[in-house]
Every structure is written in C-alpha cells, then in structure tokens.
Amino acid sequence: MKRMGMIFRAKANKALDRAEDPRETLDYSYQKQLELLQKVRRGVADVATSRKRLELQLNQLQGQSSKLEDQGRKALALGREDLAREALSRRAALQQQVSDLQTQHQTLQGEEEKLTLASQRLQAKVDAFRTKKETIKATYTAAQAQTRIGEAFSGISEEMGDVGMAIQRAEDKTQQMQARAGAIDELLASGALDDPTGTAKDDITAELDRLSGGSDVELELQRMKAELAGSSGPKQAIEGGTGGQAEQGRPQEQPRFDKQ
After folding, report:
1. Which residues have a Cβ under 8 Å from the Cβ of 187 and sit 6 or more positions away?
2. What's the CATH number where 18 sits?
3. What is the signed CA dihedral for 174, 177, 181, 183, rounded to 10 degrees?
C-alpha cells in the first residue's frame, strides 16, 4: 500500500509539474501578497480609529475634570466646603479614568506606529516582488518562445511532429500507389492480366503490329512496281515493230491500283 501511495504521489506530482505555469504561480502569489497588505492596512485603520475614539473620550473627561475643578473653586469661595470636597472627589475619579485612557492611548499609538511601519515595509516588498515577477514572466515568455522556435526548426515539437508524420504518410501512400500502378502495367504488358476494354497491348503485340504495318507498305509498293513494269512492256514492243495489228487494235489494259 505504501508503494502504491508513493507511485500515485509521484505521478500526481509529475502531472502537476507539467500543468504548472510559473507565470500563473507568480500572479497568484502576488495576489495573495496584495490581500495580506490590504489586511494590514485595514488593521492600521482599525487601530487608528480606536485611538481616535480614546482621544475623544480623553478630551471629554478632561473637560469634565476642568469643570469640576471650577465648581470646587466656586463652592469654596462661597464657603461651601462640602460642595468643594464633592467636586474634587469626582474630579479625582475622572482623573483616574483619564490616566487609564492615556495608558491605552499610548498603547494603541505604539501599535499603530508598528502596523504603519509594517505596512510600509510590506508595501515595499510587494512592489519589489511585482517588479521581479514581471521580469521573470517576461524572461520565461521569451525563453518559451525561443524554445518553440528551436523545436519548430529542429522538427521535435509536437505540432511539427504531427506535420512530419502527415507528410511521411502522404509520401508512403504515394509511393505505394506508384508501385501498384507500375505493377499493374507490368502485369498487363506480360499478359498476366487481361484488359477488358481491349485497349492495352503488350510490347510484343505492339512490335508485331508495327512490323506488319511496315510489311503491308512494302508489299503494296512491290505490287505497284510490278503493274508499272507490266504496262510498259507492250509500249516497248510497238516501238520495236514486232507487234501485229491485233495487238494494235486491242485496247490497252489500264493499270489497277486496287488494294488487295
């Protein structure tokens, strides 16, 4: 089971590596940093709001303390020492609250300063990360484009591999068709296959037809020469004085050029 789990994790990790895009990872990290910076800023704003609320309460208590002090002075001037004592007692209680609020105010002010400084530092880091992120993305994009161009030129890319396979299949099929056509021509020429249309002739038949055609021409030429020679014989006899009247009276046979 442990081995199967290890194999599964290894395959899953490999699949994640193939699917991971560093640019997307950088953008996601930058987005998370912006969210963190926004939370810090909201924290600073909340602390500043609490500090401001304490300052309002302090101002209010200090006003009441001053009022009680004035009332004690007036009561003492009027001879009402009891009223003056009451006013001073209330003023003392208010002063204790003022002291507590001042302590809280100082604490909040210190926290606000720390958060403000942390926000400024985080803002600087986020800005630096954004610059570095864009630089890395640009470098990765350029390297990716260069790699694809190199793969395209070398023919090892997936797209170019598919194109090369398609060309190879087309060439193989073309060669196969050419070989088949050549084989059929050879079989027809050798007589192993019959041509149902009667239009195909092998080499021997074609040569015999050519020779027979030439023989017919020669035979026709010889026949014409013989006819011409036969027609010229009586003419030579008349000129020599050996022919009779019958020969003179017989109509001369015209040469025939009928093709046998």
Report:
1. 193
2. 1.10.287
3. 110
Query: Is residue 61 within 8 Å of residue 98, measured between CB atoms?
Result: yes
Quote the domain boundaries for residue 212: 203-240
Which pLDDT does position 220 carry in this prediction?
A: 80
- Provide CB contacts within 8 A for 133, sequence distance 6+: 26, 27, 29, 30
Helices (H), the chain: 2-19, 22-77, 81-154, 158-190, 203-240, 245-249
Give yes or no: residues 50 and 72 share one domain: yes
b/e burial code for range 95-108 (CB count within 10 A of at least 16 → b): eeebeebeeebeeb
As given in the structure block, the two tokens for residue 197 are 């249309």
Three-state SS across 70-99? HHHHHHHHCCCHHHHHHHHHHHHHHHHHHH
Whether 249 is covered by a domain: the verdict is no
Give the residue carrying structure tokens 């600073």.
44
Residue 42 contacts residue 54 (beta carbons within 8 Å): no
Dump pLDDT digits (tens) for 151-197: 667 666 566 566 667 778 888 888 888 888 888 777 777 666 665 65
192 CB-near residues (< 8 Å, 6+ apart): none
Classify residue 241 by its DSSP letter: T
Report the pLDDT value the prediction gives residue 250, as an integer from 0 to 100: 47
Integer-rounded Cα radius of gyration of the chain: 61
Looking at the structure, tell me whether residues 146 and 224 fall in a common domain.
no
Evaluate if residue 136 carries a pLDDT over 80. Answer: yes
Q: What secondary structure letter does DSSP report for 155?
A: T
Q: Give pTM, 2 decimals.
A: 0.48
pLDDT digits (tens, 9 = 90+) for 32-79: 999 999 999 998 999 999 999 989 988 998 888 888 888 888 888 888
